[in-house]
Amino acid sequence: MITLSALQMKDIVYIEDGTKIGNLTDIEINVDIGKITNLVVATKTKTFGVFGESREIIIPWAHVMKIGHDVILVKKNGSFPTAQVEQKVDSPSTYQQ
Length: 97
Known about the structure:
Elements: H1 4-8, E1 11-14, E2 20-30, E3 35-47, E4 51-60, E5 64-67, E6 71-74, E7 82-84
Parallel strand pairs: 1-6
Antiparallel strand pairs: 1-2, 2-3, 3-4, 4-7, 5-6
């Protein structure tokens, strides 16, 4: 058995070329059948090595080939849907009593 926190420590890597995609942030489970349906992976694209934009990629469970000691290998078949992650900005009104 493996826990979600243990999975989140692993790098997600394409099996074809060894490219690191990112790290697991969440999983989607179909509760009707009790199976994992997708992995949610956070990626970060950088410009000039500093400015970054966070995105999430949804990888279907069927594309997971192997869960190793420190990596999860997935096949690169087609493009995965992505969603931009919005940065949450704290407003001063949040802290007022």
